[in-house]
Amino acid sequence: MSSEIATRPPTVCVTNAKGGTGKTTIAINVAGALNERGHDVLFVDVDPQGNATEGLGLLSAYDAEPPTLFDVLTDRAVRANVGELIVEHEEMDVLPSSIDLLQAEHELTIADLLAWAKTDDSVAVDPDALADLAINVTPETVTGDHALDSLALALAELDHEYDFVVIDSPPFYGKLTDTAIYAAGNVLVPALTEATSERAIELLIDQVAALEGQVDITVDTMGVVANRVEQTNEDATMLAWLEEVFADYPVWEVRKRVALQRAFSAGKSIFAYEQRVDMEDVFLSIAERFETHFETTTPEVTA
């Protein structure tokens, strides 16, 4: 990882490939909690479905004409203009998703294959032939021995110094998710307290380990957010399992609350929503964990 990328602001990727975990709701409310504590936050939505972009009331940005985040990730000539794509929200700045990101997995896969073909003489693949399958990627735009640094390099182009960056990843494993985790170097894991979550967590652990081995980085775990927790035996069993698997990390419990969905539908976190939600303290605790982990001064405390 280059020194330019290494100097990025504290960045966390909220990720779990299992659909329906409330990943996007968790990401938005963590960003809202950081803002509530006085931090300047950038929210990056790399989910091609654009749920966070919609959940922050920015649906028109999802349908915007190119260049979009897709071009920033796949076209080196556009990368430096990433700041022009950022949209202001009352709680945070947002680098929105785009419908064009539906093509990103294909494009990033070709980019990674190009890097492999250019750096490994034993690979008998014509880079130009691979490039013919791409939209933006060319052999000239791919440097290094992998192409998972596109988001990290784009964020390094920003001239605004944020206190924190929160990335909402896609709900699937692949190059786009790897690119998001690589850019962050830290993950926050949302999980439902149901038995089907066990396999998803195990796959995530394997995916992160494979990424670390491929690009020689260390990904730190910030903790686990048990989401939509209810008072059932299955919930209690899964909470105990999460506590065991993530014994070295905090496990936060977010109880099932209709107000969380209502705030999402209103395009904001629970901290900007007009109805008080008793889960605010949980998200503030996550924000405090971020501050402690990254040794970040809290603006509201120093003011």
Notes on the structure:
There is one protein chain. The protein has 303 residues and is an alpha/beta fold. It has a single domain, classed as Rossmann fold (3-Layer(aba) Sandwich), CATH 3.40.50. Helix content is 44%, strand content 14%. The protein is built from 15 helices and eight strands. Strands 3-4-2-5-1-6-7-8 form an eight-stranded mixed sheet, sandwiched between helices. Helix 12 links the parallel strand 7 and strand 8 (251-255). It is globular and about 55 Å long. The protein starts with a helix and ends with a helix.
Number of strands: 8
Alpha-beta classification? alpha/beta
Provide the spatial order of strands within the biggest beta sheet.
3-4-2-5-1-6-7-8
Number of self-contained structural domains:
1
